[in-house]
Amino acid sequence: ETLMGYFSPITRPSDEGVVGLLARADSKGGPITRLLELSRPGSTLYMCAMGGLRLKFDPERILFRDQEIKRIGLLAGGTGIAPMIQIIRAYGHYVRSHP
What we know:
By secondary structure, this protein is an alpha+beta fold. The chain is about 25% helix and about 15% strand. It starts with 6 loop residues before the first strand and ends with a helix.
């Protein structure tokens, strides 16, 4: 069965064994909220993105649409805060691992 709903991953791709998701917990969260409530450790779910920002982290630089990012400014509010947390965590991890 295919369910659609809005959620944001808040863990980095390198966080093995853990997936953190931020989803609405009220009636506006849609059917995905119920699916997440019923999921338990060991459950298997297939999830895919509907779009969004795609950053590539090469050993020497960060790319967006195959162009190097030299500076980045972030502004978010409401539900945009969750993806922003993920971007900030990924960037912080990148900076710490590439001194």
